[in-house]
Amino acid sequence: MLxxxxxxxxxxxxxxTPMGNLMREYWxxxxxxxxxxxxxxxxxxxxxxxxxxxAFRDTLGRVGLIQNHCPHRxxxxxxxxxxxxxxxxxxxxxxxxxxxxxxxxxNEPAESDFRxxxxxxxxxxxxxxxxxxxxxxxxxTPPPLPDIEINMLPEDEIAIIPSxxxxxxLQAVEGEIDxxxxxxxxxxxxxxxxxxxxxxxxxxxxxxxxxxxxxxxEYGTMYGAYRPAKPGYxxxxxxxxxxxxxxxxxxxxxxxxxxxxxxxxxxxxxxxxYVMVRKGKSETGRPARLPIxxxxxxxxxxxxxxxxxxxxxxxxxxxxxxxTNDYLIDRDVQRNGDDYSGIQYLASQDRAVQESMGGIYDxxxxxxxxxxxxxxxxxxxxxxxxxxxxxxAVIPPGVDNPEVYRNRSGGVLLPEGxxxxxxxxxxxxxxxxxxxxxxxxxxx
Amino acid sequence: MLxxxxxxxxxxxxxxTPMGNLMREYWxxxxxxxxxxxxxxxxxxxxxxxxxxxAFRDTLGRVGLIQNHCPHRxxxxxxxxxxxxxxxxxxxxxxxxxxxxxxxxxNEPAESDFRxxxxxxxxxxxxxxxxxxxxxxxxxTPPPLPDIEINMLPEDEIAIIPSxxxxxxLQAVEGEIDxxxxxxxxxxxxxxxxxxxxxxxxxxxxxxxxxxxxxxxEYGTMYGAYRPAKPGYxxxxxxxxxxxxxxxxxxxxxxxxxxxxxxxxxxxxxxxxYVMVRKGKSETGRPARLPIxxxxxxxxxxxxxxxxxxxxxxxxxxxxxxxTNDYLIDRDVQRNGDDYSGIQYLASQDRAVQESMGGIYDxxxxxxxxxxxxxxxxxxxxxxxxxxxxxxAVIPPGVDNPEVYRNRSGGVLLPEGxxxxxxxxxxxxxxxxxxxxxxxxxxx
Amino acid sequence: MLxxxxxxxxxxxxxxTPMGNLMREYWxxxxxxxxxxxxxxxxxxxxxxxxxxxAFRDTLGRVGLIQNHCPHRxxxxxxxxxxxxxxxxxxxxxxxxxxxxxxxxxNEPAESDFRxxxxxxxxxxxxxxxxxxxxxxxxxTPPPLPDIEINMLPEDEIAIIPSxxxxxxLQAVEGEIDxxxxxxxxxxxxxxxxxxxxxxxxxxxxxxxxxxxxxxxEYGTMYGAYRPAKPGYxxxxxxxxxxxxxxxxxxxxxxxxxxxxxxxxxxxxxxxxYVMVRKGKSETGRPARLPIxxxxxxxxxxxxxxxxxxxxxxxxxxxxxxxTNDYLIDRDVQRNGDDYSGIQYLASQDRAVQESMGGIYDxxxxxxxxxxxxxxxxxxxxxxxxxxxxxxAVIPPGVDNPEVYRNRSGGVLLPEGxxxxxxxxxxxxxxxxxxxxxxxxxxx
Lengths: 444, 444, 444
Fold this sequence. Notes:
The structure is a homotrimer. By secondary structure, the first copy, chain A, is an alpha+beta fold. Helices cover 18% and strands 23% of the residues of chain A. In chain A, the strands form 4 sheets. In chain A, strands 11, 12, 13, 14, 15, 16, 17 and 18 form an 8-stranded antiparallel sheet that branches. A 4-stranded antiparallel sheet of chain A has the order 5-6-7-8, with no helix packed on it. A 3-stranded antiparallel sheet of chain A has the order 1-10-9, with no helix packed on it.
């Protein structure tokens, strides 16, 4: 559990909050590049860390992220005219470039220099791997982008699944770093005899109460969850939390799986998740009837159906399976044991539990168990880093060390008595190919 | 009128409020038995006294009422798996029985005894007369159920009409104990010459300003409203308020009518009403064109049309005739005098006035008249009892005396000069049959 | 910009606020006469200056405006029975006349005189020019109605276009007294060569950064915006702000145009606008493809499509082109330059910018320019008058001087060096016909 004070501190991310300040030290994903399909395309409303922003692409193709309200009299730039390398408020024609400079003020006399005194809040943006990244922090020169492998691959090898979550970002992160729920929420109905012996999934459903080892790292926190495997071997599931809101779940085989999930706060009670996986290479040990979010080409029918995007502040990437329809829970399927939750789609199962906790869960009411050791450790690191920044201006983990993000997660069999940290060092390195892994590792 | 302080005190019923504490001394109706149709059926969201609860029926058919959020990490039990004599959170498989014991914690190591340290908030439930009753109070051993006659009849003799009201519970109660409005809101358009002479309704519409006698009782408050009847006789309408939220309106003939209405707060601004009448025996003096809520077999087309239930917190038993459609008021019918309000259905008429007062009416703005003497007295009793409990731990009326609820209400002709209290004692007794009453009393 | 304190003071208009008190010194338009089509017609919910009121027309055809909640127990008069020269609450039949007197209290004994002690809040109403005017202020005898010319013409010469705006009233007023936006939001796509030389519009689009002259007046504030016209001439656009919320924009030719727009606060974040123009005589210099709000006979297809009225507090005169559909912005039209905003209808363009500022715009964030001189001056006058009333009981401008409203606005060509105030005195006088004006002035 958390005290009320700590729960507030860790959850709230608006301007001026300690956790909001921590997140603003990093580059954060703002939207998908393809949401701004070309120069001078339609602007997009973006809610980010509690701020209302308008994203646009200028005539040169550069992305701008500007305050919603025109600095002049407050009309929204959403209705703005793009073109001529800027965005122009339709109220009086004031035009701003992606750096917030007022480059035209046509309703003022020609001799006026007032436009040089007016600046709009904009945040610098760069694009990489299908994402528009932005830096909302205090530095004049932003830090480097994090070395997130999946985001640095050639764009045609990356699959991104964006999804809107109606809860605080931490509830989503905690669901992802919580390997214990996998054997229940997702695979609780699968019996060991249903699965081919020797596969990861077989070990998972044979022992649903694994033990855990958790260590702090330069980039955040890492856990290994372990349980018995074939004689003489232990099955390890190794996964990461990366500052400030990234997770690398243990899907697929360690050394082979390239994945990163970002849980970006829109505001305190809404989150945009970006699941990023390698196209055609991220097979996991999951049985086919439990579709995963992932490669849109390989698993065309495994995606949660989505509502059409709207232009609203919370209109992007809304799953059609959501709280308003109880996630289409099928009570008969749940009851007869065909599926543990009765909810189709892994991602919907996660959202059902996370969102049902409410906008911000009151963590004074929790009773944490030994399986929550990773959750506990990550909270402690986040709170510690937010306080260190607020009180002693300590730069948070990884901000100036992009290379610490070069990690991989996944499952692996290690001999009994092996040192899980030392002996997986190479497999955990990003940007290293292990073509043999996919064959060696026991997939279902 | 009430002071702002008294109005807050009497209306608010959440955990820890004085009126909430008073209500928690009693058993309260939580939902209908048939909403949980069988062992291990689908759970139901129940909002009760400002608490979010999940109702379920276990494998043995026993009803459980458990806190919405799993004590572990807060996922809602609404998505829980029923079966094996409990409800199991789908997040990590923790299973609880109807008493709140954690009976399985499958993601913890076998040797862990942590499950014995975790308890969920549950409220004991019993079923009687088609209702699930629950006790949300502080006692280890709850008090007895109240001896409410209609709730103790064989179930096939009881008709229950549940209905959701969008206002504070007290506005609904006050509408029910207010016999004065009957001659206007419900029967204002009926002229004495429209009704057969000698019937109750004839006297009612002939004199719309009766006099009142009000007395405090062991169970709450009783009134007799009286007006001239046939020569030498007085027509008395005798009705009850029973602690903490029950009303017995004067429908039908005293000694014959068996009725109890419960106005159960869902939260401070939403109420669930349960109207309970005897099937096939509760004819009243009301004219046919003004259908009443009541016996669903005798009056199949007299019920307010209902929207389909949803699984939402406020999705149960919603009238289709409601504020969003102005209660389908027909202004021409209202204007031409065919009906006083222009609103079809007695129950919709009541809801129109009660709900139009707003969620919680500001009673500092009232101007009470002599016809409000019952309303005034009931408020005083409720406030007194809530304060006595809060300040001196005085057990509220009837909590430990179930027999005080054994009352009947209704209309009766008494000779002029009769003692209305003394002379109706026998007719007011529950569980006594007076087969002659239906014939003796002047029905329309 | 305004300080937070001034912004609150100038925007909020509920009972007891300084600006609310200022507005209550004046007669204010409450609704259209035709919304109450005849004696004893259906009542109408009216939200006005933050108060919920029920408008009705009594048997003699007189308009009443009564508090929503019956003084007795709070049921809404919306469900009340009209007739017998009053409105009767359907709960207990209490009947009130348009002056708030309780004229019948039928559920009290005949001998009771309680009805003489009960009074409902009502506001006196008069009808003129298609509007129902009401006085919500403290005087026993209200001041005279303002001499608003367009409201005093024969009713068949007046066109009124009512329209609901989802923002604070001041945002709407500021949009109207801001002539600078015309050349951008409305005519930004029109090039000088598109328009016949010598017309007002030609001068407007040829010079989009006019200069301004602003003067305080007895009724409020007047501006003249000026720019070069044909050789030796200056094109002046002269317009007025009239206390407390009226605007006379410079549409059409000065001396010919008869117009008044009222921006009546429903509450702090919703406004009802009444645009009033002379039927068949208010041609302006606007090109046909940009329809204006105005004369419904001459420009039948120039009106913003409206949603059907509902009986809700905010259900009257809602444009179908609104924030929920992004004002049907057509990005291609905006981009290709066919229209500056891509939004059809002048009125929708105004609403898009005003409403996108939010319910109450935070004016601490503004950067005002020289083109905002009228906005600045009007705010100062409003703040000054509200403070003078609050602190020194100074009667606000025009309250007791109805004749100060006798003004006209519009465009005019004056010789270079002319005194725009002195030399337009006659043309600015209301109630004076200048039949030659329509021909003399350069229409497009």
